[in-house]
Write a structure and sequence with these properties.
Shape: globular
Number of domains: 2
Structural class: mainly alpha
CATH class of the largest domain: Mainly Alpha
Order of helices and strands: HHHHHHHHH
Strand content: under 5%
Length: 246
């Protein structure tokens, strides 16, 4: 008799392809451009609106099954706002317009909440688990960039509140996974299938948002040009050195 597959493993398995594409896109857009504060802040701003919407939904659904995923310490709205204030100034809320891709994302989440709110758990689970896991990698890279950009007296972790979950991160992830699997045990197969579909949609919507980040491509191009120039200069030095020795 084989062990029953945990629902979180099924979610990951059946959304692996689009998940991998999403990870690659986010790493390319934010990872390669994290030396540019404007690009980094723009990425934060996009996801801030989604996380904030989900957290207000958790408040509205506090007496439902969905609230089982509201693990103490997991919420990030305050941390997003702290980072955005650091990068964009205290009046950042007044100086931006919500992107169409974000409006489309929120519209879909609103429709789910109105018609079948249990499906929101797919978004809550994947987005927070992704932030807690991938965010730690981005935090280390971003902290290194910040150290290089600021003096030794500056705090390299400033502007990184959203990915600074602390020592309880692994406990939070474990509780969230356990809660997701416990919720799945109470659901019928049709609802589980719908959750799998929404799991795939999470990454599709993420991709649509991330593709709208301005400046990331230009930062990547600048980095590539610098690399090409360095290679050309090195090759020229080697060439002239050999010529001088002949």
């Amino acid at each position: 008799m084989t062990d029953k597959e945990l629902f979180t493993k099924r979610m990951r398995r059946e959304s692996r392809q689009i998940h991998n594409i999403s990870d690659a896109l986010i790493n390319a857009k934010l990872g390669i451009a994290m030396s540019d504060d404007k690009v980094w802040a723009e990425g934060l701003l996009l996801f801030y609106e989604i996380f904030k919407h989900l957290e207000t939904a958790l408040d509205r659904l506090k007496n439902t099954t969905v609230a089982q995923l509201d693990i103490p310490g997991m919420r990030r709205t305050t941390e997003f706002e702290k980072d955005l204030t650091f990068y964009l100034g205290s009046e950042w809320r007044e100086n931006y317009t919500t992107r169409d891709s974000v409006l489309k994302y929120i519209s879909h989440l609103t429709e789910i909440e109105e018609n079948k709110p249990i499906l929101l758990v797919a978004y809550i689970y994947h987005l927070y688990m992704g932030l807690f896991a991938g965010g730690q990698i981005l935090k280390k890279k971003r902290a290194l960039v910040m150290k290089l950009k600021f003096s030794s007296t500056s705090d390299p972790n400033e502007g990184l509140a959203v990915v600074s979950v602390g020592p309880d991160m692994y406990k939070i992830k474990k509780k969230m996974t356990d809660a997701m699997n416990a919720i799945a045990e109470t659901l019928d197969e049709n609802t589980k299938d719908l959750l799998i579909k929404e799991s795939q949609n999470v990454f599709k919507f993420n991709n649509e948002m991330v593709r709208t980040i301005k400046g990331a491509d230009s930062v990547f191009i600048r980095k590539m040009l610098k690399t090409v120039v360095a290679v050309v200069l090195l090759a020229s030095l080697v060439y002239y050195f050999k010529r001088s020795q002949s």
